[in-house]
Amino acid sequence: MAGHSKWHNIQHRKGAQDAKRGKIFTKLIKEIVVAAKRGGGVIENNPSLRAIIDKALASNMKRDTIENAVKRGSGDLDGDNYEEVRYEGYGLGGTAIMVDCLTDNINRTVSDVRHAFAKHGGNLGTDGSVAYMFTKQGFISFAEGDEDAIMEIAIDAGAEDVIVNDDGSIDVVTTAEDFFTIKDALVESGQKVAHSQITMEPANRVDLNLEDAEKFMKLIDRLEDLDDTQEVYHNAEISDEIMTQL
To answer: What pTM was computed for the model?
Structure first.
């Protein structure tokens, strides 16, 4: 089926993310520490830890930095204690937003998140106000590739869907549980994965025009830039044309 390219938007935002690489590394280290603390430091037995390490490696984090973070989480090295917390709210046009944070100070974090929503035309909601609109899914994206080969391997491995986008990129959709099995099958077959992640996918999306999209992305950028923010999920639909203008 045809679809809206996730790869295009990922590429478009990568430049801005690269400019904040130091902050991204700090956030990834916190995430690795928490995952190792929760599920142990053995990657083979901890899918959450593997997912975060894959993300860290994709961001060019050094392996010794990753190993030290794992040791901190598993208790081999001293480290801070972080609490996982999710905030839910609304942006322009009734868009739904979820913000996942890791924090050692809940009062500071909720104040920062609330201020970001208020400053950019949004509202912080209550627990559960928008979470029901999202489903945890895996996405394995290819900037290009052999459509038939990718589809055959992915479906045989248990993928839920394969989306061929208008720009030629391909997205393989998986459950969170089957994500690594399917990714490994694709990689082992020689397919070149451009981006992969387990994310929260909205059931429905809200289209935004250029003016609203510009304001909305300021809110998203502000939320992502907070020190305690790990991930921001939303259901806004921004066309490739508008994203390019932004």
So the answer is: 0.77
* Dihedral sign for Cα atoms in the order 144, 180, 130, 161: positive
212-221: burial string, b at 16+ Cβ within 10 Å, e else: bbebbbbbbe
> Across the chain, where does the E strand assignment appear?
2-3, 83-90, 96-103, 123-124, 134-142, 161-165, 170-175, 195-202, 206-207, 229-234, 236-237
The average confidence (pLDDT) of the chain is 85
Domain boundaries, the chain: 2-74
State the CB neighbour count (10 A cutoff) for residue 151: 17
| Architecture, CATH, for domain 2-74 | Orthogonal Bundle (1.10)
Whole-Å CA distances, 151 to 142, 174, 224:
12, 12, 33
Helix (H) or strand (E) holding 168: none
Angle at alpha carbon of residue 84, lines to 117 and 184, rounded to 5°: 105
Angle between helices 210-225 and 106-119 (to 10 degrees): 160
- Give one word for 93, left, alpha or beta, with left for phi > 0 and alpha for psi -120 to 50: left
pLDDT tens digits, 43-95: 888 888 998 898 888 888 888 888 988 888 887 656 667 888 999 999 988 89
CA dihedral 123, 127, 132, 136 (to 10 degrees): 100
